[in-house]
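Pipeline run #58 for the internal structure catalog. This entry was flagged by the ingest filter as a single-chain record with no existing model, so it goes straight to prediction. Upstream metadata was stripped on purpose; only the residue string is passed forward. Reviewer on rotation: M.T. Logging verbosity set to normal.
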Amino acid sequence: MGKKLFLILVAILLAIPGVRAQYHESFVENFDGAVLENFDVNIRPQGDDFRYYSGVPSLSEKGTRVMIYRMDPTDPAGAGKGPEIVSKQLTYYGTYSARLRVPDVTKVQPNLGAVVGYFTYHVDDVDGLSEIDFEWLVADPEIIYIGTWTGKRPIDRIGRVINLAEGEIYNTSYRADGGTDVPFEGVQNLPEKVEPIEGYNAAERFYTYGFDWLPDRLIWWIEHPETGEKVVLWDYTGTTPDFSGIPNNPTHYRLNFWHTNNWPVQTNPHSIEPPLYPYELEVDWMKYVPL
């Protein structure tokens, strides 16, 4: 099916009232109040609000009200075991963006194993997993992890790891059917170089991140803090008859903060320690614009 015909069919489907009601329309969640309009709060254990506050003054930017996640030192390791928000309805192709600052832990606990995940995630019975990720392992806030997980088990994976302060791409690869990582080349590996952002440190200030999700293309980007221009981190158009890596089923829009005990950051193999303190993540806003 051609891209144009596919988009026409999607538009027709979403025009049906009963179907459209299941999907979010365009929104911006500003986190300037205590009640969220477009997200549900997923807290474990249920009812414990220590890990989550919205509409509170930023810890690092005067005059900005934000949502703050706290990592509880008693949280068990594992994705979804810390604070998380999940969109109330499904989202699909479109542009996703957020402005956030990850916790600054490098001087306090340099071997902390903690992940900030800004992502989409949903599993259905027909197409399996639909997941698109931005992730930071906060032990090294100069590094960004981006990629997807798609399909039914064994799940396909594409990913890229970038040191944005240095403009160094550590790897760009895919994993088909749960196998081993294979380096990408050619159109699957663009841009081949990423210009560094001087002084980039995801823990020292807010940055705006985003991705454009299309049926046959995924573009991850960051807004340059000085010029406001989009800096493309990965423009993936590597779909082939045998391998895609691009999710093609609806999803939920999410953000979480959790402890990992088995995934160290690229530059520090020791960074899997449990948290010693209730470290805090700040989120200014999250936005979604459907295709």
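catalog note: The first strand starts at residue 27 and ends at 29.
catalog note: Residues 18 and 150 are 27 Å apart (CA to CA).
status: ready for reviewer M.T.
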